[in-house]
């Protein structure tokens, strides 16, 4: 739910500022000597607000520039991994299905909250372009999983995959989380993949 009261306060504050500047300019026109002073104050006030807006846009543009630079670097890394001399791979990366995957990947990449997730996402277009071991639908599902689950989930899955029959305590030790309380009490849970 959106809190509209804060928008009303901001709009009211902005309207008050505009009205105050207007009043200063009107008063400046009515009284010639003081008018120059009031006009100067109103102009400085307006410039200060404009400077804040300009700084905001500068920060925003810098953020977009950094994001584009990161995406450019990611595309270069992906292309370096793919053997473009292979006709099948070249056809694959030109296909609409692959282009759709790349677009989805970069949408999710922009929202990834950690560098580790960005690395997972960077690997998807490389692997999907070089091999057809799974369908594009499965690849899309994996992209959704990266968005939905944390890195810890993937570390746990990796531990179970590497060691079928691993216990919870062994998973915690494997991923660097220390001892599991259940194993300290003599309870052992075996997880199978």
Q: How would you sum up this structure, described in words?
A:
With 193 residues, the chain is an all-alpha fold. It is built from nine helices and no strands. α1 packs antiparallel against α2 and α4 runs parallel beside α6. It is flat. The two termini are 41 Å apart. The model has no long low-confidence stretch (mean pLDDT 75).
Write a brief caption for the model.
The protein has 193 residues and is mostly helical. Helices cover 79% and strands 0% of the residues.
What order do the helices and strands come in, and which of them pair?
Blueprint: H1 4-30, H2 32-81, H3 87-94, H4 96-111, H5 115-130, H6 136-148, H7 151-162, H8 168-174, H9 181-184
């Amino acid at each position: 739910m959106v809190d509209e009261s804060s928008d009303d306060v901001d709009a009211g504050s902005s309207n008050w500022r505009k009205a105050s500047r207007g009043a200063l300019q009107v008063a400046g026109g009515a009284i010639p000597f003081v008018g120059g002073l009031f006009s100067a104050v109103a102009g400085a006030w307006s410039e200060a607000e404009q400077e804040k807006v300009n700084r905001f846009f500068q920060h925003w543009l810098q953020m977009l520039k950094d994001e584009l630079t990161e995406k450019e670097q990611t595309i270069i890394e992906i292309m370096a991994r793919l053997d473009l001399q292979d006709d099948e791979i070249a056809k694959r990366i030109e296909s609409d299905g692959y282009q759709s995957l790349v677009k989805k990947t970069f949408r999710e990449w922009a929202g990834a909250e950690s560098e580790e997730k960005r690395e997972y996402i960077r690997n998807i277009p490389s692997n999907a372009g070089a091999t057809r071991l799974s369908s594009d639908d499965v690849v899309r599902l994996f992209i959704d999983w990266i968005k939905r689950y944390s890195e810890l989930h993937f570390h746990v899955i990796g531990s179970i995959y590497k060691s079928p029959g691993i216990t919870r305590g062994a998973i915690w030790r494997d991923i660097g989380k220390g001892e599991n309380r259940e194993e300290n009490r003599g309870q052992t849970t075996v997880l199978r993949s």
